[in-house]
Amino acid sequence: MNIIELNGVSWKRENRMILEQIDWTVRQGEHWAVLGLNGSGKTTLLNMINGYIWPTKGQVSVLGHPFGTIDLRELRKSIGWVSSSLQERIQPALKAQLVVISGKYASLGLFEKPTEEDFARAERLMERLGCKHLLDSAYQTCSQGEKQKLLIARALMASPKLLILDEATNGLDFLSREALLENVAELASEPDGPTLLMVTHHIEEVLPAFGRTLLIRRGRVFAQGFSRDVLSSDSLSDFFETKVQVRWQNDRAWLSIPGKQG
User: What share of the chain is helix, strand, coil (3-state, %, to 5)?
Assistant: First the structure.
């Protein structure tokens, strides 16, 4: 089963083409990074994968279900989406473990009585992500990095088949970012874990586990394929339309501008 299939997908809004002729397939067992500048169409692409918008042209299939053959509300229960913008919508006073449990019900608060198994699963997920110590903490008292870990645990609560990390490291300092990326690497290594999409502006966040990368620019696919090939100095110089240099270290790509000193 292919996890995502987009064939000739375009999306137009108010006579402006936001996405144009997107062909992209994510296969079982692959983890992908998705990179693009602001306004490139990344968020529109994610909204389409989640079934919040319908293509103007082309076909979309997610988790083996072509759009038009499944209730998209049911499909979304198998997709976890972690975004820094979600933080602002969580009830500030909600206890951390209840934030995690709310993921089972796809709600931003908790409106049903959790079961003992819900509490036990939330605790296991929090331990797995290194944030079990936050069990009884109010969400508003957690650091930015802790909040992101809780949101990942929340997304995993429903055992998704696809987990989208949408600029999940925004606002984190270097050490907090690396700690979160370490958790992501552990998730990616689990044989029964979800397929991961890492959406980012920063190529150094493309971990070795993300063996494939999609570059999107001005609503079109600029390049896609193995990360080692896509994240090259020549490819990214063309992508950014400025001369850049890529240095690989510990199987991660690091970007710099020749002649510029930090």
Answer: 35, 30, 35
